[in-house]
Design goal:
Largest interface: A-B, 34 and 33 residues
Number of helices of chain A: 19
Number of strands of chain B: 13
Mean pLDDT of chain A: 92
CATH topology of the largest domain in chain B: Four Helix Bundle (Hemerythrin (Met), subunit A)
Low-confidence stretches of chain A: none
CATH topology of the largest domain in chain A: FAD/NAD(P)-binding domain
CATH architecture of the largest domain in chain A: 3-Layer(bba) Sandwich
Helix content of chain A: 25-40%
Mean pLDDT of chain B: 85
Low-confidence stretches of chain B: 380-385
Strand order of the largest sheet of chain B: 3-4-5-6-2-1-7
Number of domains of chain B: 3
CATH class of the largest domain in chain B: Mainly Alpha
Largest sheet of chain B: 7 strands, mixed
Structural class of chain A: alpha+beta
Oligomer: heterodimer
Strand order of the largest sheet of chain A: 16-17-18-19-15-20
CATH superfamily of the largest domain in chain A: FAD/NAD(P)-binding domain
Largest sheet of chain A: 6 strands, antiparallel
Helix content of chain B: 40-55%
Number of domains of chain A: 4
Number of helices of chain B: 14
CATH class of the largest domain in chain A: Alpha Beta
Shape of chain A: globular
Distance between the termini of chain B: 16 Å
Structural class of chain B: alpha/beta
Radius of gyration of chain B: 29 Å
CATH architecture of the largest domain in chain B: Up-down Bundle
Radius of gyration of chain A: 26 Å
Number of strands of chain A: 24
Chain lengths: ~625, ~450
Amino acid sequence: MKRFDVIVAGGGHAGCEAAHAAARLGCATAMVVTDRLSIARMSCNPAIGGPGKSQIVREIDALGGLMARVTDRAGLQWRTLNGAKGAAVRACRAQADTIEYETAMREELAATPNLSIIEGTVKDILAKDGAVRGVLLLSGDELAANAVILCTGTFLNGLLHTGLTQTPGGRVGEGPSAHLSDSLKKLGLTLGRLKTGTPARLHKDSINWDAAQEQPGDTPPPPMSYFTKKIGREQLPCHITHTNARTHEIIRTGFGRSPLFTGVIQGVGPRYCPSIEDKVVRFPERLSHHIFLEPVSRHNDEIYPNGISTSLPEDIQDEFLRSIPGLEEVKVIRYGYAVEYDFVPPTQTYPTLESKAVGGLYLAGQINGTSGYEEAAGQGLLAGINAARKVRGEEPVILSRAESYIGVMVDDLTTLGTEEPYRMFTSRAEHRLVMRQDNADQRLCELGRIIGLLREEQYREYRERQGRIQSLVKRLRGEFLNPTPETMTLLRNSGLPPVEMSIGIAQYMKRPDVALKRDSVFGDLAAFDDADIERAETEIKYEGYIARQNRWIEQMGKIENMPLEKEMNYIGISGLSVELQQKLEKVKPLTFGRASRIAGMTPAALSILMIHLKTRGRNV
Amino acid sequence: MRMNLDDTIAAIATPAGEGGLGVIRVSGPSAHRIAAPLFFRKGGKPGDPLESHRLYFGTLLGAAGPVDEVCVVYMRSPRSYTRQDMVEISCHGSPAVLRRALNTLLEAGARMAEPGEFTKRAFLSGRIDLSQAEGIIDLIKARSEGAARAAFGLMQGGLSQRIEAVRQKLVWTLSHLEASIDFPDEEFITATDDELRKTLTEAARRLDILIKSYDGGRFLKHGLSLAIIGKPNAGKSSLLNALLEEERAIVAEIPGTTRDLIRAEGELAGLKVELIDTAGLNPAPDEVEAEGIRRALKAAEGADAVIGLFDGARAWEESDTKVLEVLKKARLHLAVINKADMPQLIAWPDAALAPVKISVKEMRGLDQLLTKIAAFAHDAQALNHEEPVVTRARHREIFCRIAGDLRRAADEIAAGRELAAASVWDALEEIKRFTGESYTEEVLSAIFDEFCVGK
């Protein structure tokens, strides 16, 4: 029997980060995948980033993970979204070349010491006395380990639907993981069922591109990773087209054979990413929905039509696609489908991502009810770090809601659970203004270094950047603008508003119509790159808001971090409703703050809990 | 402060002292189990189960025999004041009987309630929000019709409803702000910056109205102090007596009869009022009068409102100029010309300040005067029942903060929707403080500690 410290089941976006992190932290790690060529596959849209998600990708980067770096190596378009809505919600999104992405990720993993990739399928989790011991493969081989991380994606009892045709599988052309669900149930975990879907893939040469509107990338392309100096490659454009009334009519003719509307699909799908048939039903007043035509790779002819995921029968898919401008002659490479899969409702998991039922068993990605590559990768990284720390006998890492989106996500999942595939939004983060994509390094690089994942040279680079930004902020805070003729000319020439009297530059910068520009009144900025300048500008402009949020975080911190014991018994606490007693017993929140976010928690219930905590010592 | 809802509490709910009736309240899961065996109803036997919401007549039994003839009503959870099982026992209003009855219940397993604990349970069980609980306290303590009406409105959720309307506007605004932030690629139409600004400003204006009602609301709750000033023999003491409908101050033809302040409480136009009669502002006072005038001026300065009383039957004099000057320094002031029953010799010098003309002697014009006094308390419609009135400093502070957050949000929309969103989130947090959805122990204790036992 082969022995490892950590076994990672699955090679998707969660699995890659988990395996890389555990191995880099010195653990002998095995990644078990059915097919090594499917590692890091983008099963759905070929994009990484966007609001809420780019923050996660940057956090992964700052902690020493892979996703941002690999995206920059393998991208084919980069854009900044929400440019005018504020620094904290500004988000980078990259279109990935999915083939290059897989290759680049395989190379990263191959270059990771202590990591073996084993082809096989995990059939059973081996556990003894409530602790994991290893896994049993379908081949009959056993692998021993002290920690196992499950990153099964949509493969747990996966079932694909196109029309009323069903095929067991986790992804088109790949069989499901049929036994693992039973194994989890035997270990005492409860399973739920979710659904997601994907659109057809179209042949590039069958599209009339003149009928679609071009959407180019930004110049220069904004990198995803802090450690990418420059992206030198040529970018590919995306295109936009629209459905129309005719399209919607055709879609309606397929409802009788839709697995979604005939009750065949039981799993709950994501409300924020509905299939086109769902949109047609829920928004009958909308006569048109837009579609982004996104290139999948430089090395193949596939186009991903974003916005029309569907599980309608193939003939209906053909027909409605051809009613769309530009797609009149379209050739379908692969039809769209829905996939149903098992997940482990995540209130059964600690915020370390270790399951409560089995010590050393970690869960990450869609198995926790999330959706999205970035969400999966963030969890994979955290699970990998904690699995390694457990093996090495170190304290687990828990990320807080006040320092990272990953912390927000994991807290939401493990205290509230989720009824539908969970996607990150910036509005889920109550400390949004202090958790920006531009300062994830400031928030997490120190931690990345302490954990041991962030490389020495990356850390050094971070420190240098921090030094530059701080010196710039300090300089700007110390300087004044006087309404001299030279200054006024300079302001006018750089399109900045005039000043009436002597004013501190920092004060001037807080005006909404003022931007920190090169070759103007802000002095020599040659030593700073664009990212430095943007960061310094935000630090100054947002000073007041940041101080306000920090005060709030500090105030809440006392209650937020008041610890609750894992062994605490909630059943029978007088004054608490039976329902809340059971919820608390199930979630076993680690802090008072987490308890406060459990659904149905009232101020009264929290007071009762607080009193119970304070008086418990005396009563015993 | 106790947060335990599991034990059963009891207390005397009516005021101490003799009365026709005295009521004991019991609340908690064991209310029926404790009270029913102690009650021997006509035609039944002790311990017979009581039907909910039915009034029974019978005898309350103590350990040493019958305590009193009583009426008992059992209110089954959740249809009760606290949403718990409750029993109310109406005894004869003798302190000794009530004490014995209460002891009987305590011996049978009830715990003595703490101040405000019944209302606290109503709040903790979610039957009322925090502002409604505050309304109950105010209602119990109300000293005038207007105060009672404002408190009743608060208890009924009048303010809560206004704030709920504001909250819904804010949720709408936030949903538009957040949707445009989190779904930049979607083409659904979110409200324009102008529409959002308009909604925010409009909500802030609604709060302004509530904030403005606070002065009036404060007078409703705590009463209005009203100083009457004027030259000697203008009829200040007669006016005080007329307003109070009693001979409170000595009235004489002799100028300077009132030498010290006379304070008298009464209710005018549904408003609790403290009237202050002052010494006449004599231009050439003797030593005692001079001290009286000093006190009069001080009283005018400290009062919530001032009436300047002028003598219509005499020509304008230097002392009238002094009175007018003092009068106009008061934020709330009213000029009144007395002796309208006599030939008018006064020439009114101030076109900007219209005086009310009255005759105390013939009781003419007093209604008009009362209306004006009432208006002090509710510029903002307090006594017409439409608009809720803010009577508590806590509410006023919260509303000021919310209005500030919303105005800031309106300004911030152009600079970046995320900043506007942050300010709206702040406002929503403040609303939670108002309703008690989010509170600290101190706030709760401070509020419920205002209660007497049994309320």
